[in-house]
Amino acid sequence: MKLPFPAKRLLEFLDQESDHPRSRLLVFSLIAGMANGALLAVINHGAGLVNEFSSTGTVQIYYLAMFCVVLALFTYTKKYTLDSAVVMVEEVLLKVRKRISDKLRHTELEFIERHGHAHIYNCLFQDTLQISQSSAMVFSSIQAAIMLAFSMLYIAWLTPEGFVLTVAAIGLGAWVFLLKRAVIIRDINEANRHEARFFDALEHTLDGFKEVKINRAKSQDLYQHQVRIASDVQILKSRTGINSVFVTMFSEVFFYILIAVVLFVWPYFAAVDPGVIIKLTACILFIIGPLDQLFGSLPLFVKADAAVANLRSLERQVDDATRGVRVVETSKNQLPVFEQLEFSDVRFEYHNPDDKQRFRVGPINFKLRAGEIIFIVGGNGSGKSTLLKLLTGLYYPTEGKIEVNGEFLDRDLYPDYREFFGIVFTDFHLFDRFYGAVDIDEQRVRTLIKEMGLSDKTKFRDGAFTNISLSTGQRKRLALINAIADERQIYVFDELAADQDPEFRRHLYEELLPDLRRLGKTIIAVTHDDRYFSAADRVIKMEEGQMKEMV
Prior knowledge:
The chain has helices at 8-17, 22-48, 50-55, 57-106, 109-158, 160-207, 209-213, 216-269, 274-322, 384-391, 414-418, 442-451, 472-485, 502-518; strands spanning 340-351, 357-369, 373-377, 399-404, 407-408, 421-424, 460-461, 464-465, 490-494, 522-526, 538-543, 546-550. By secondary structure, the chain is of the alpha/beta class. It has a six-stranded mixed β-sheet with strand order 6-9-10-3-11-12, sandwiched between helices. It has a four-stranded antiparallel β-sheet with strand order 2-1-4-5, covered by helices on one side. The chain has a two-stranded antiparallel sheet with strand order 7-8. Helix 5 packs antiparallel against helix 9.
C-alpha cells in the first residue's frame, strides 16, 4: 500500500501490523472530515442569510437543524475514529513489543553484547512511546486534511481566484516544510543515537557506582562525558524544535498575510463582490486551525516515522542475527544422559565493527567426562570467560569441531545442548523466582537457603525469594541455589568463591561440590583458590587464549 507524505512510514506500519478492520476507521475519518467541511458551508451560508432570519424564522430553523445534524455527525465520527485509533495503536505496539522481545530471547549473546542494552531499550521504550503519542494526532490530521480538501472545493465554488491564492499559500507552506524535513530527520536520528550513548554512560555510573564513589577524578571525568553527550542531545533536539517552530510559524503567519491580501490587495486590482470576500475570509479563518494542526503535527510525524524506522531496523538486525537458527521452545524428548564432551581444534575470534580481528581463543583441544570436577585458572584477558561461553553454547566456534557423547554438535542441536548446563557467571543476573521450573521442592530450597547461610537474609515464599537486595557474595549464593534447583547435568561456576567468607569457601570446595558430584553432576569452575585445587580432578590454565593442563 503506497501512502503519500506525511507520516508514510507510520501509516504503513499501522496498516501492516494492525488486525483491526481499517476500512471502517478510514470511512469514519472520511465522514468526520466531510462533516467538518460541511460545518463551514452551513455557517458561511447561514451568516449570509442573516437578513432573512430577521424577517422569518423558517430559514433560521432550517439552518439550525442542519447545523445540529452535521455537528452531531462530526462529533460522533471523530470520537469513534480517535478512540479506535488509540486502541488500535496500543494493540499494534503490544504486538510488536511481544514479537521483538520474543525474537530477542532467541537471538545470540554476541548480538546483545555488540548492540548493548541502551540501543534496545531506546527502541522498545522511547520509540514506541513516540509512536503511541502520535497515534491520535495521525487520525486527527487525516480528518483535518479531508476537511481541508472539502473546504478547498467549497472555496473553488465560491471564487476560482480565491482558490488559486489559497492553494498557492498552502503549497508554499508545504514547500518550506519539505526544505526543512531532511534536516529535521537527520537531527532526530542523531539525537536518538546520542541518547543511546547517554544511557550507556549513565549505566557506567549505576553499575560502577562503588568505583566512581571512591575516585573523584573518575567520577568527574565520567560526569563530564555524560554532560557532553547530554549537551549534544540538547543542541540537536533544540535545533529540531526550532526548525519545527519555524515551519509552524511560517504557515500561520503566511495565512494571515493571505487574509490581508484578500481583504486589502485583491479588491484594489479587481472588482470583487464584497460578499465573496467576506465568505472567503471566513473560510480562510476556518481552515487556519486544521492547517495549523497539519503543519504543526508534521514534525511529530517525522519523529514517529524515525521511531518506526528504528523499530524496523532493530527487528531486521535481530532477524539477521537469528537467521538459520532453529527456534525450539522445549525439547520434544528428554535430554540424553551426559557422558562426554570433546573439543577438537576449536577456535573463536572476536571482531571489531570494521571486521578486524580483536582477540582469538584457541585452538582448544579438550575433553570433559561425566562426573568430573575441573578447575580453570588464568589471568584477566586470558580467555577464561570466552572458553566458558563456548562450553555452554553461548558462542559458536569460528573453527573446529565439538562432539557430545560422540556425536557432532550441529548448530541445530545447540538449543538442546544448552539445556545440559546450569550457570553462575561473574556477571550473573539474579532472578527472584524459578522461572520455567515446575514442581519446585520448596523444602529443598529452604534447606539450601539454610545451607548457604542466608536464612536470616531471605525466605522462599509463594514461589519467590522475599529479598534479593543482598551483598555480592550473598547474591552469588542465591544464584547458586537457582542453578542447583534447575537440576542440570553440568554446572559452570565463574569465580563463585570470590566475595565469599573463608567458611563458605571451605564449605563450597569440601562439601557442596563433592555432594553435587555424588548426585551425578559434572562441574567446571573458574577459581584462583589454589589451596583447594585438590578438590578438582583436573586444573586447566588459560593463557593468551591457549589452554594447557596443569600437572
